[in-house]
Amino acid sequence: MKYLLLLIFLPAVASAQVMSPVRPILSGDYTEQVRKLRGKTDPVDSVSNRRNTVMTLEGIFDPRLPVYKMKTTKNQVEIMPRLEKYLDIAGSFSTYVEVKTANRQPDLQHSYAQGRPVNGTPAWRGPETGEIFSYGPAMQLLEFDGTAYVYDKYGRLTAIGAGNGNKAHIYDNNILRTATSLSQSLNVQGDLYRYGKRTWNFNTKMAHTGNQTLIRDTKDNTVTFGAGAGTSIKWFKVSGNYTYVHTDANNGNRNGFLNRVWQNALLTPVSFDNSQGTMNGTAQRSYSNTADNPRFLLEDNSNKYIWSQHIGSLKTTVKTNNFEGTITHSIHHTGEENKEVYKPGTASWQDGMQTDRKKQDLNYMLQSRFQYEVPYINDFLRPAFIANYTYTDAHTRISYNAPGNHYRYQRSSHAASVAAKDIIHTGKLSATLEAGNSIFLSNTATTAHYFLPSLSADARLDHILARFSVQGNTALRYFKSELPIDRSIGHVNLLRYSAEQAFQYQPLQEAGSFDRLTPIDHKEWTAGLRLSYNYRYYIEGSTFIRHTRNDVFPVYESGQLQLKNIADHRNKGFEIQLGRNFGNSNWLFDVAGNISFSTYTSTVTGVRDGYNFTPVAGFSNVHKVLVNGGSMGAIAGNTYLRDAAGRIVIGDDGFPLVDPQLKVIGNAIPDFTMKMSNYFRLKRFDLNLDWEWRKGGDMWNGTQAALDYYGRSAVSGQQRNITGYVFNGVTQAGHLNTVPVSFYNPALPVESNRWTRYGPGGVAEAYIQKADFLKLNTIRLSYTIKAWNYSQRIRLSAYVNNIFLWTAYKGADPNQLLYDQYNTDGLDYFNIPSVKTYGLNASLQF
């Protein structure tokens, strides 16, 4: 037995008793390089003496390549492969296919025909009468007479029993369609290496996007091409890039053309069919001579919008142990061409109208940054000095076909700054302190500014209670700015028209000059704090306060559009975010996400004498307005007349009276916004959901006002038979109102009913609605296929954007802007609906 046990344990005993040193396994390449290295060093073997020194790898080295040379410097080792030169190419190809449908749209009535009361009875009145209202008889009470009629192939409408028995058709004049989009892009990057060092790099990009957009007969295409190359020689690097982008569309919207198409489609009575033709002989075929057939506006209109941009840049960098300097030259050339045509016979433009606008921008910019780090002193004193200088030379030319409408702007500006910073790093703490000063001067500014101080600090403390870390930052800075001369403010021309005059809108004036303005003055404080656990869970918050003085706004004076320094305002807000990051990428299932809460206010703190209540965007009768002490999101319009106690004053006929004086009626800025993103990962599948909830904020629903006026809204259809209604308020004598009214009394002229008596814009106050919404912005499901090696993969995605929208607002998506214009949030006058997007994406990374 003892021999058997000895036999069993012999291998373990033998291995336990054998004492031999651990020998390094050395490759032949490595041994040869060490032998060569010894010949160039002191007799004492420096490699052997530094055998226990931790060294870092300088540059990039692929361990699969044979070794050509090794070089050590201080605590760095550089390994060069045997291959003298080799080219590394990578890139990606991606394609998107999307289908888009219209989101929220105004509610319309489909029950009543074109017409008005005649001899106390609602009567159908055809297009030849010029009728604009849909206060005619119910469609179910009408039929065709079968006679030849140029406005309808089935004949005129008449009362049931007086025609041919063919019931009246309820026509659908929706101008929207299912939109489609196809986008493809190819990116290729290449790197040329020599002995393991990248000596040259290049990149190129090609992309194309084609859209059949939401409104029928509209489309656009965008082509992008880019290329770049760079090289590095020891401490010197240089690179150049060029990008070209070209977009063309057959219908632009600078003059609100697409909104006009949408407006005419919604206002067309259900008893008229736009699709039966756009011409009657040489005249436009529309439901009224004061309105347009939207198909007439779209077909063969010669409209076009072309935008192209060329961007070139050259960047040089010099970097040594303690110094780094970068100089970048860039030049941008942008060309824009608008051809806006209304054919003869168009409502408000019987002789036709054509606007040709061309805009050219040429901008040169020199940006430089220099940083010198003082050689290492100690953990608490590692100072660095930074200098920045930016020079811009911008030119903009705008020309119209109208005589005298030619504009030329030029600006040269200089901005420079110097700063000193100290980096502290000791144990668990790392921090940076920076203080500096900037200067600003420009040929369009009245004065130069040489004292614009800034101060910032950020710190990070790691491994608190083993797994916690905290990071904070704060900054205070003063800076100046000017309105970009290439940003057109032609949209402000809309302020010269009331909402009911929108068909006459023609933006032909630009700013007279950008010269002799005081630079806009900003003083801003920001702060943030982030607490994280195990680098996966975090909570962070940030806040800001910005005081702006001498802000510039456009005003009309002496018939000219001029820029003036007229207002001061203060913006402040904060955001809190709670989140979780993904863990180990090898986990079978993982979850990540974040939720944020943000709010801000913007208050006008001062307005120059004579400029209080200045309109800044919108129409002449409803607009965004500057009011001293009010919000920057204030909306102004007419209101009901009220007595000293704030009660609505009712007229002798029982309907509320109107105060013609414009007042603040709403605020477009929301109370707060919450966003939530959820990410789920299961093996190679990824699911992403993005939610957004906005609480508060007001919208003026001018679309509803116009639809009510013309009798096309669902509300006017549902409520036109209400009688005996008593408005809450007081009479002009101060007594409680007791006069009952009918919303629509056929015995009275149509202009006296509930909705028409106040005009096409109605009473603006009555159409202020809350803009709260809850939106599911994105659902995206992706699957990743790992291809030939670790850097190559195929990713397939399916997604839906804006799939769900709940809102208290009764119009379109509250995020849509008036005529696509800047600063028109809170205003809706036939804003084009947003879209739901269903898309597929395939991308290949190689």
TrEMBL record:
The keyword Signal applies. It comes from the Bacteria. Keywords: Signal. Residues 1-16 form the signal peptide. This is SusC/RagA family TonB-linked outer membrane protein. It comes from Chitinophaga tropicalis.
